[in-house]
Amino acid sequence: xxxxxxxxxxxxxxxxxxxxxxxxxxxxxxxxxxxxxxxxxxxxxxxxxxxxxxxxxxxxxxxxxxxxxxxxxxxxxxxxxxxxxxxxxxxxxxxxxxxxxxxxxxxxxxxxxxxxxxxxxxxxxxxxxxxxxxxxxxxxxxxxxxxxxxxxxxxxxxxxxxxxxxxxxxxxxxxxxxxxxxxxxxxxxxxxxx
Length: 194
Hints:
The protein has 194 residues and is an alpha/beta fold. The chain contains eight helices and four strands, in the order E-H-E-H-E-H-H-E-H-H-H-H. The N and C termini lie far apart (70 Å). This is Resolvase.
């Protein structure tokens, strides 16, 4: 018998909505297919992050293979983090031998006819999302550089560099110098010229 985990979520911004709109249908589907329900993971949090308590618990239990399939209402109820993170979640489940199924999107089924096509589409969207993010980051950095804003870690003043040199010449370790000046030991190593 297939054991399923039910995942239901509404955003805190979805006023008037309740997971009780999703759960009865998910339960009915599981019962109609003869699935045994392991647990219901229910939360009222934004899907814009994976740092949701029930979502994390779902993945911890999936890693332990406590169920065979995750059943959710729709992909946007499962995650709203974008194509790349969502694809990574689905791949992670499959890597653990756990399938997934969207109740309202028949094509989104890890064992369905269109599984490879859907994964391919999601992977393509994820790649485009990654490219767009990289382009936006580079454009933002170029704009800030053109405005004369330093990009990267802050440059230490000549006074700090002199203090590092003096303390190091006195025989102190990088850690001791760092502690004395309130900076990191890696910064001491970077600016110390023997």
